[in-house]
Amino acid sequence: MVDLPQEFLERMKSEVADFNGFLKSYLSPPEKAIRVNTLKIPVEEFKKISPFDLEPVPWESSAFYVSGEGLGKTVHHAAGLYYVQEPSAAVAAPKLEVKHGERVLDLCSAPGGKGTQLAQYLNGGGIIFLNEINFSRAKILCSNAERMGIKNAVITCAAPRSLAENFEEYFDKILVDAPCSGEGMFKKEEAAIPEWSLENVEKCAARQKDILDCAYLMLKGGGRLVYSTCTFARDEDEGQVEKFLSAHPDCRLIEMHKLLPHEIRGEGHFVAVIEKDGKTRRDLPLLTPFVKDKKFVSLYREWERSTLSVNFENLYAVGDTLYSLPNEMPKTSVQTLRAGVRLGEFVNGRFNPSHSLAMCLKKGEADFIELDEPTAIKYLRGQIFDCDQNLKGWKIAAFCGFPLGWCKASGGVAKNHLPKGIRI
To answer: CB neighbours (10 Å) of residue 198?
Structure first.
């Protein structure tokens, strides 16, 4: 039994009808789930190659309960075919009802579970901003978006107030998965227990109010906002929604749910769906593609013609790094860590492709070297592997037809170009 804070237990006893059932839920191990990355593979195709037995999660068609250890250490995971996600956390993103072509913001995005889920719904259309105020967590967010092969994401590291000053009434849909007291994490991460206190609940509630007020400013008239937490505190959940609606009378509540761990297979979540009246939607000037040194474009296009069968447009250089911007990339003054696809870097008169580019390619868009699982693991450890003597130049090391990263073939050997930071 998890050693729960006494003040937490006293509060829950007064709020939960089946308190004994609630307590009993802490005797069972945490539920585990994965979400299939439909940007890369259809669910039915994944089922054929899944390393796990899959049992559907009822509120997300691409999510499945799984068991076992090392969910984030398989070759399938490295290929970006799935995201490890606590099952009840998958309930919020579908409520946003994202449609292809919309402008979407995940305001508190790291590590990226819900944001990459939203990107799947966009299916490459429109634009999605994934924001995280903490720089180290924002870098993790970048890594996850890269692994999932998302081409139309803009990853920012900014305070909500700074974003609100730049994006007034800009977004069609906004998800606020707010920082909270984490009561739904007690079983999964026991380190959250000593950090809990009634004072921390109050601090979280105050921070959540400020974040929601910023989200309101960025939401277009007629737009939809989903607010979620992984806590059970009324001040952070229902009470927070009530205060928001009172402060913003042009918004209305569509639905609100609290998933408790003794009532579902999951650790618990709160979600509220809110819509804003009106029809206003503000456009922003687009960022003009720009490469100061024109020889960079020539070098890249020459490499692209020899290596890829797909063209990347909207080229934009930052120093020696080249990006392919999303089609609707707006001008912004907020700190941006990544926009679109990081194509690669120019080094000593050569173009070196990035891992980001490798992970968004599909079979037929570059030369793939198909690896069996033992060789794929060898590649993921940073080792070289044997290949066809006739192969030369940049190739994709692939597993089941999906990219793991770049290698460079010569003389029957493929040199490993997987970034050191993501090797296993």
So the answer is: 14
User: How many CB atoms are located within 10 Å of the residue 410 CB?
Assistant: 12
Residue among 31, 33, 34, 138 nearest 83 (CA): 34
Q: How far apart are the C-alpha atoms of 74 and 144, rounded to whole Å?
A: 15
- The predicted-structure confidence for 378-401, as pLDDT tens digits, reads as follows 999 999 999 999 999 999 999 999
Q: Residue 275 forms beta bridges with which residues? A: 224, 252
The pLDDT value given to residue 190 = 84
Task: Compute the mean pLDDT over every residue in the chain, rounded to the nearest whole number.
Answer: 97
What per-residue confidence (pLDDT) applies to 1? 65
The candidate with the shortest Cα–Cα distance to 422, out of 402, 401, 406, 400, is 406
Return the active site residues: 230
* Phi and psi torsions of 44, nearest 5°: -65, -35
- Note the pLDDT tens digit of each residue in 124-157: 999 999 999 999 999 999 999 999 999 999 999 9
Q: Among residues of the chain, what percentage have pLDDT more than 70?
A: 100
Structure tokens at 16: 């939960």
